[in-house]
Amino acid sequence: MNSDGKTELEIENSVEEEPSADEGPSADAGQSTDEALLDDSVADVPPTRDEEMERLRLTAAEADKRVLQAQAEAENFRKRMRRDYEDQLKFASTDLIVDLLQVRDNLSRAIEAAQSGEQASGLLEGVAMVIKQMDDVLGKHGVVEIPAEGEVFDPNVHEAISQIPSDVESGKVAHVAVTGFKLHDRVIRPSQVVVSTGPA
User: Fold this and answer.
1) Which of 5, 28, 108, 179 registers the highest number of CB atoms within 10 A of its CB?
2) Residue ranges per structural domain of the chain
């Protein structure tokens, strides 16, 4: 028995019953380690067969989409180049045709001058034949005359040089000074016209 009145046996039992200062933290540390190992095991789980197949399918679909887009862009580029080339061929003779039209204008004026004489029937027939032949040649190459006289004035194909009162309805072409022409669907020379303002 010691000075406190306890026997040695009681002292030994109390020592065994007191928890160690290290027991609490050791338990917590063990639990944290187990959780970390569990997280690592989940992260290392390989994808399932279905998940891998879905990933491959999405990758292939994206690749197909890019290929189709590239093919479409290439096809559009080829079409644009072909169209530009065809336009160059179609309108390559524009300058020559404009010069020929000036010759035609002179022949037309010769006919108008001859019509005022009494003994010019031979000249009239000859010049008219030349103009007819020239019109046929121009038409063969895609040149067409722009309708003008009596038509509603259209700034896309007509060029107004003046306005006059006339019996023709207001806003329509009363007189054609110079005939206009198109090459295929392109205006190469607008008709120079006098536009009616209506009856005086």
Assistant:
1) 179
2) 19-90, 93-141, 143-200
Sequence-distant (6+) residues with CB within 8 A of 138 are 97, 100, 101, 104, 181
**What are the backbone dihedrals phi and psi of residue 185, each rounded to the nearest 5 degrees, phi first?**
-110, 15
Reported in sequence order, the residue ranges of 21-172 that DSSP labels E, i.e. its strands, are 143-145, 158-164
Cα(106)–Cα(129) distance, integer angstroms = 14
Distance CA 71, CA 65 (A): 10
Q: The tokens of 117 are what?
A: 């004489």
pLDDT at 37 over 60: no
How far is C-alpha 10 from the chain's CA centre?
A: 99
CB 182 within 8 A of CB 188: yes
pLDDT tier for residue 123 given thresholds of 50, 70 and 90: confident
